[in-house]
């Protein structure tokens, strides 16, 4: 059996066969994985093909009050989840954990290889979310009253 070249169309076929719902994004050319995007704290989770790589990328939102604790836990999380690169992103737009996996697919993949890879990444990502919750690093976002427009504040 020959490996199949990886295209968005092939990813769609595999995801359909696995009954994984997704949506195509023309802005990033990625397939956004609805199953994961519906989870609490997950801002975005998608598969993309870029330069011979299959990239799983997701972002996890967290409260600003958790930045120091999450930063302190990054090494432990990275060791316990070696299939992912876990990065802390803090900027003016917000703060999130970026969770990324890259697989070289320039030679293609067999159906069984994609299924095994996607299953492992899905289970690993859910496990990572569970770890973050067990460590109490994911808590509901608290809105800073000073950031609200004047008319939204309670007087």
Mean residue pLDDT? 87
- Helices and strands, in N-to-C order? HEEHEEHEEH
Number of helices: 4
CATH level 1 name: Alpha Beta
**Low-pLDDT segments:** 141-155
User: Helix coverage percent of residues?
Assistant: 25-40%
Structural class: alpha+beta
**Percent of residues in beta strands:** 25-35%
CATH architecture: 2-Layer Sandwich
Question: CATH fold name, please?
Answer: Yope Regulator, Chain: A
Radius of gyration: 18 Å
Q: In angstroms, what separates the terminal alpha carbons?
A: 69 Å
**Total strand segments:** 6
What does the oligomeric state look like here? single chain
Tell me the strand order in the biggest sheet.
Answer: 1-2-3-4-6-5
Gross morphology: elongated
Q: Could you give a short account of the major beta sheet?
A: 6 strands, antiparallel
Kindly describe this structure.
The protein has a single domain (8-152), classed as Yope Regulator, Chain: A (2-Layer Sandwich), CATH 3.30.1460.10. It has four helices and six strands. It has helices spanning 8-17, 34-37, 67-80, 111-134, and strands spanning 22-25, 30-33, 42-50, 53-61, 85-91, 94-104. It has a six-stranded antiparallel β-sheet. The termini are far apart. 19% of the residues are buried.
What can be said about this structure in brief?
This protein is of the alpha+beta class. It contains four helices and six strands; from the N terminus they run αββαββαββα. A hairpin with a 2-residue loop joins strand 5 and strand 6.
Looking at this protein, list some descriptive labels.
six-stranded antiparallel beta sheet; 4 helices; 155 residues; alpha+beta; Yope Regulator, Chain: A; disordered C terminus
């Amino acid at each position: 059996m020959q490996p199949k070249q990886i295209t968005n169309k092939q990813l769609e076929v595999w995801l359909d066969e696995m009954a994984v719902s997704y949506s195509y994004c023309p802005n990033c050319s990625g397939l956004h994985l609805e199953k994961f995007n519906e989870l609490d704290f997950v801002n975005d989770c998608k598969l993309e093909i870029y330069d011979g790589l299959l990239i799983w990328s997701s972002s996890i939102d967290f409260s600003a009050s958790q930045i120091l604790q999450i930063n302190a836990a990054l090494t432990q999380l990275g060791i316990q989840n070696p299939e992912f690169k876990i990065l802390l992103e803090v900027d003016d737009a917000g703060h999130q954990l970026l969770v990324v996996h890259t697989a070289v697919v320039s030679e293609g993949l067999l159906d069984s290889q994609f299924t095994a890879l996607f299953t492992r990444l899905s289970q690993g990502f859910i496990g990572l979310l569970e770890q973050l919750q067990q460590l109490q690093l994911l808590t509901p976002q608290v809105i800073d009253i000073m950031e609200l427009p004047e008319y939204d504040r309670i007087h």
